[in-house]
Design brief:
487 residues, alpha/beta, Immunoglobulin-like, Collagenase (Catalytic Domain), 4-stranded mixed beta sheet, globular
Length: 487
C-alpha cells in the first residue's frame, strides 16, 4: 500500500510538471518573456469616451500568470483584448475599471464637462503583430462596445527608455515563490518624508498583517508575495482641498476626489506606475501618511488608504476587496459622489451585488441553503432609522467642535448596536439576497446581512465575496479562473 501511494504521488507530480511545461510552451509561442506597458489617455464626457496612446515602455521579464491569459476573471466594466493579427486568435485579455467611468456618474459630468485620465495596460510582449481592443460592457453586461482598437507591430514599436528612479527603494516583506505563481502585492509610500522611511515599512507590515487576518486571505497567505516601495516625499501627508492645505508628494494623491471629502485617490497614473514597478506586482496598495479617515479602490487599478486612523486597517482590506477582486460596495446609507451608479434594469457585474431580475437565476444561488427565501427578509426600516440617527449625531458633534475621540466613541457605540441588531435577524449568518446595496436602499441586493464590504470593522468577507476572492487568487497563481457553479 505504501509503495502504491508513493507511485500515486510521483504520478501527480509528473502531471503537474507536464502541465507546467505545456503552459510555458504555450506562453513562449505567443510572447517574449518581456512586459509591454502601454500608457493611455482616457478622455470624454458623460456619454462619450475615447482612448489615445500616450507612450509605450518595455521591461525585461513577465511577472503575471503564464496560463489562462485569454480567459481572465470576467470582472470590470472594461476588457482589454489582444489578438494575434495573423491567426486572429485571442491571446490575452484583462478586465478593469477606471477613475474615468466613476467620474462619468458624477454631477460634474452630468453638467456637460469633459475630463482626461491617464491609464496603463500591462501585457506580455507579443512576438508578432497584434490588435489591441478595449471593450465596454453594454446594458446586458456583454463586452460589445468597442471604445479603442489599434494594430501594433512589435518590430516597429517606438519604445521609451525606462524612467530613472534611483530614489525608489524596494523591500521584500514576504516572498513565498515565483511571481508568476503568486499574487504579488506592492505597498507604495505616499506622503512619507525621508526620515519617515522606517515608519512606512512598519505601516506596510501592519497593513499586510491586517490583510492576512481575515478570510479568505488568512487561509492562503502562502500564495502571496508582498513588497514595499518607498520614495521620499518633500512634504508629509497629502492634499486636503477642503482645508486649503496642499502638499508636494510623489503620487499627488488628494482627499476630496469627485467632491467627496473622504475619497482619497490619485490621478497621477504615470508617477504611480513608474514607482510601483520597482517591484513585481499584480495589485497596488497606496499607503498615505496621515491620520485622517479616507481611501478608495478600483478594480485592477489600485487600493488606497490612510495609515494612522483608527479605521485604517479596515479601510485597506475593504478597498483591496474592490481593487483585487472587483467586489462592489454592499452599503447604501453613506454619502457617495455617484449618481445612478447602477442604472435601473442593469445587472451589476460585481460578483456580490445583483438587481435580482430573476430570483431563480441568482448568481450565487449555489451558496444559498434550501429554505432560505429569495429575496431574504430583514428589518431594513429599523436599520435605516438607527443609521440616520447616528449620522445626525455625528453631524451635531462636529458642529460643536467635538474631538475625533468623541466621534469615534459614538461610532463604536453604533457599531456595537449594529452587531447586536444583525445577530437578532432571522437569517443572520445566512447567504441570501438582502435588499440594500450598491449605494441604494432598494433595487440592489447583497448576499449577506453583514460583511466588510457593508459595515466598518476588520471582519471577514461574506461567503460570496470569499468565493470571488479565492477564484481571483487561483487565476494569479496559475490554477486558472474556476467557473462558478452558478454559471
Amino acid at each position: 500500500m505504501r509503495v502504491h501511494c508513493c507511485w500515486m504521488i510521483v504520478g501527480a507530480l509528473l502531471v503537474l510538471q507536464t502541465n507546467a511545461a505545456r503552459a510555458q510552451d504555450s506562453f513562449a509561442r505567443w510572447f517574449f518573456n518581456r512586459t509591454l506597458r502601454i500608457d493611455l489617455f482616457h478622455t470624454g464626457g458623460k456619454k462619450n469616451e475615447q482612448y489615445t496612446v500616450d507612450r509605450l515602455w518595455v521591461r525585461e521579464g513577465w511577472n503575471g500568470p503564464s496560463t489562462g491569459l485569454a480567459d481572465p476573471p470576467p470582472l470590470g466594466l472594461y476588457q482589454a483584448r489582444v489578438e494575434d493579427l495573423e491567426s486572429q486568435q485571442l491571446i490575452y485579455a484583462r478586465g478593469f475599471s477606471t477613475l474615468f467611468n466613476e467620474w462619468q456618474t458624477t454631477a460634474e459630468a452630468g453638467r456637460g464637462a469633459h475630463r482626461t485620465f491617464g491609464e496603463t495596460l500591462r501585457l506580455p510582449l507579443p512576438r508578432r503583430s497584434f490588435r489591441l481592443s478595449i471593450l465596454r460592457r453594454d446594458a446586458n453586461n456583454r463586452f460589445t462596445r468597442v471604445v479603442f482598437q489599434q494594430v501594433f507591430h512589435p518590430d516597429s514599436l517606438v519604445i521609451h527608455p525606462e524612467p530613472a528612479l534611483p530614489q525608489a527603494e524596494m523591500t521584500i516583506l514576504q516572498k513565498t515563490g515565483n511571481p508568476q505563481e503568486r499574487v504579488d502585492v506592492v505597498f507604495v509610500a505616499e506622503g512619507y518624508t525621508a526620515n519617515q522611511r522606517s515608519k512606512f515599512l512598519t505601516d506596510a507590515r501592519r497593513m499586510m498583517k491586517a490583510l492576512f487576518s481575515v478570510d479568505p486571505f488568512l487561509k492562503v497567505q502562502n500564495r502571496f508575495n508582498c513588497y514595499a516601495v518607498f520614495v521620499a516625499s518633500p512634504d508629509s501627508g497629502v492634499d486636503e482641498p477642503g482645508k486649503k492645505q496642499y502638499r508636494t508628494t510623489p503620487l499627488n494623491a488628494s482627499f476630496g476626489t469627485f467632491g467627496l471629502p473622504r475619497y482619497l485617490m490619485t490621478d497621477d497614473n504615470r508617477s504611480l506606475q513608474n514607482i510601483a514597478e520597482k517591484a513585481p506586482f499584480d495589485a497596488i496598495v497606496i499607503l498615505v501618511n496621515t491620520n485622517r479617515y479616507g481611501g478608495g479602490g478600483i478594480y485592477n487599478l489600485y487600493a488606497c488608504t490612510t495609515v494612522d486612523n483608527p479605521w485604517s486597517t479596515y479601510v485597506m482590506v475593504h478597498e483591496f476587496g474592490h481593487s483585487f477582486a472587483g467586489l462592489g460596495d454592499e452599503y447604501f446609507s453613506s454619502t457617495v459622489a455617484y449618481q445612478d451608479f447602477y442604472p435601473e434594469g442593469t445587472e451589476p457585474w460585481e460578483p456580490n451585488l445583483t438587481a435580482l431580475a430573476d430570483p431563480a437565476q441568482l448568481k450565487w444561488k449555489h451558496l444559498v441553503e434550501p429554505g432560505t427565501p429569495i429575496p431574504t427578509p430583514w428589518d431594513k426600516a429599523t436599520y435605516e432609522a438607527k443609521t440616520g440617527e447616528f449620522r445626525r449625531q455625528v453631524s451635531r458633534l462636529r458642529a460643536k467642535g467635538a474631538s475625533e475621540e468623541q466621534i469615534r466613541q459614538a461610532e463604536l457605540t453604533y457599531q456595537h448596536w449594529l452587531k447586536q441588531f444583525f445577530a437578532s435577524q432571522p437569517y443572520a449568518g445566512k447567504v441570501g439576497a438582502f435588499e440594500g446595496g450598491g449605494y441604494v436602499s432598494s433595487g440592489i441586493y447583497r448576499p449577506a446581512l453583514n460583511c466588510i464590504m457593508f459595515s466598518k470593522g476588520l471582519q471577514d468577507f461574506d461567503p460570496v465575496c470569499q468565493e470571488a476572492i479565492t477564484r481571483v487568487i487561483d487565476y494569479y497563481t496559475g490554477r486558472g479562473y474556476p467557473k462558478s457553479k452558478a454559471n
